[in-house]
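Input/output pair, single chain:
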Amino acid sequence: MNDPTPIGAALDTIPTTPTELVTAADGTTGVIQWEGTAVDGQWLTNYVNQLIAARLVEPWQLGGDKAQTAHARAANRDRLTSWHRALAGLPQEGLDAARQHFEKHGVPADSRGSRRWHLRPSDVSDWVRARARRLIPAEKACEAHPSEWRHSCTQCDYAGPVDPDRARSYIAQIRATLAQRKDTP
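Output:
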């Protein structure tokens, strides 16, 4: 009979892809794929330890006797799980950039403007999501420009000759804006 494997060890060996499941307001779910390198559970654990070493994240709890040690282990496991849940599916490049940003600029202020001592998992994941580039599925990409979405390809919209009437209307709008700026003190 095989020895039982702790669930944490099994979760650390499962690679996570840089994809994330999201739920819309109407209850439908979708998948967001990010450009970048996928990370696994062990990499995320090392990443959290780097944040702790940089004094950006609250250190792990330590226990004294058996009961305190068991309580500390459970609390640390829960904290690590919340970090894994918040950062799973995000690209490695974005997470490294977030760590460098927070090492340089410190912990952000909360909504009331007061400073906090430590980062929360949502601080890092929000920072990465705001700067990560979505991977465009092949069926939704522009045929001529694969790095652009088909429905809003700026290179196709602004490439080529412009209709003379449209050009005149653009020039008239620019002239009106410039004239208005000259009139206002």
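The helical segments are 7-13, 41-53, 66-87, 92-105, 121-131, 154-158, 164-183. The chain has two domains: 7-135, 139-185.
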